[in-house]
């Protein structure tokens, strides 16, 4: 309940019931119940006027309109901010956004106006999003992920780099190193990159940590499909380590005790040794010696090999508590942009996907910091872009 309501409705209790005896004092104690509702919505029209004076010599002198008032009739920053917010953050298609503005506020805007607002917002916010990418390069731990999208009929890739307070999205027609280089975050990055083991990430000299939630899902599949005991034991080992790390973090520690780290690594090696015996390297069939290239290995073999060759990355979370057990931060951050494709089908042009990535980077970062999104967009349309970087602690 709020301390002071804007509207009060009085509902008296008189007349007093007859059962109250004459001579007794009666004190009336009110009981309050509040109803929260939206006020009637209507748009406001602000007219700007400049004075025009004519000198005796015949020369005319005129005042100056505000910089963001360039047309005889135009939509204001709040309407344009709402249009951008609905399309780029709440994922509404352009036509449905125009309809929503008409239904909610009585403002009939065209789909062209909505698209123009999106394009303008992307241009205004581009420098701020550049600040986000530069700030991510300096973070100690950054989560990375990528997901397939479509631009028309062509495949495209949505790339993500994020932390607890920042999100950055990029669009590229490639998934691997060419895209990662062009974004400029991983080249020169000296922190810890958390990802799901996509091979191009390994080309960068920073430290790496792998998503163990993915390992658990793969191990569950192996248990269900092959009934190999080592897989269930590895699941139990990873889950036990996570619980111990959670307790260690709650106790203010930065890493598990070295003896506990040695235990988990030793136990992991023992389980992997058993798994290698059950899942040996597949050799080429004698009848196919003429074939060239790598031999396709089983799903189980590939997982076992990854757990063995990248053990440092798998178990980094026990040695450095800044590193999470999984890459869920990135998976959460990339889930909502994927919804955009489910709703709209695809982007119509590369420029549309790039604009979406720019605006979404800005709004997602502000949302993580519990800042007002529509207010920030409205300020951007007036020429003042709120910094998306979190305040220094």
Automatic annotation (TrEMBL):
Residues that span the membrane, as ranges: none
Record-linked InterPro entries: Transposase-related, Transposase_IS66_central
Domain Transposase IS66 central per the UniProt entry, residue ranges: 73-354
Entry protein name: Transposase IS66 central domain-containing protein
């Amino acid at each position: 309940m709020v301390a002071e309501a804007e509207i009060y409705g009085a509902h008296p209790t008189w007349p007093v019931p007859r059962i109250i005896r004459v001579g007794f004092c009666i004190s009336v104690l009110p009981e309050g119940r509040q109803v929260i509702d939206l006020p009637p919505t209507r748009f406001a029209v602000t007219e700007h006027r400049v004075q025009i004076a004519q000198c005796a010599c015949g020369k005319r002198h005129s005042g100056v309109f505000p910089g963001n008032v360039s047309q005889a009739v135009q939509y204001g920053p709040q309407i344009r901010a709402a249009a951008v917010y609905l399309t780029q953050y709440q994922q509404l298609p352009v036509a449905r956004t125009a309809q929503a503005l008409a239904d909610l506020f009585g403002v009939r805007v065209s789909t062209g106006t909505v698209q123009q607002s999106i394009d303008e917002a992307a241009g205004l916010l581009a420098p701020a999003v550049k600040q986000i990418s530069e700030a991510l390069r300096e973070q100690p731990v950054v989560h990375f992920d990528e997901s397939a999208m479509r631009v028309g009929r062509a495949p495209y890739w949505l790339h993500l780099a994020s932390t607890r307070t920042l999100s950055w999205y990029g669009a590229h027609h490639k998934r691997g190193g060419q895209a990662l280089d062009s974004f400029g975050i991983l080249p020169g990055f000296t922190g810890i990159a958390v990802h799901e083991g996509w091979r191009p990430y390994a080309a960068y000299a920073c430290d790496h940590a792998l998503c163990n939630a993915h390992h658990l899902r793969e191990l569950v599949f192996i248990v269900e499909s092959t009934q190999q005991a080592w897989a269930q034991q590895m699941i139990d080992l990873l889950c036990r380590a996570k619980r111990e790390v959670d307790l260690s973090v709650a106790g203010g520690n930065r890493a598990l005790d070295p003896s506990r780290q040695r235990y988990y690594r030793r136990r992991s090696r023992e389980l992997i040794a058993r798994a290698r015996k059950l899942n040996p390297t597949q050799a080429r069939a004698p009848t196919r010696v003429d074939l060239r290239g790598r031999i396709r290995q089983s799903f189980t073999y590939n997982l076992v090999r990854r757990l063995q060759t990248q053990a440092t990355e798998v178990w980094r979370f026990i040695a450095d508590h800044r590193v999470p057990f999984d890459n869920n931060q990135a998976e959460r951050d990339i889930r909502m942009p994927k919804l955009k494709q489910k709703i709209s089908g695809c982007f119509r042009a590369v420029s549309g996907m790039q604009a979406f990535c720019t605006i979404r980077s800005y709004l997602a970062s502000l949302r993580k910091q519990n800042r007002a999104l529509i207010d920030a967009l409205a300020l951007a349309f007036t020429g003042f872009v709120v910094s998306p970087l979190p305040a220094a602690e």
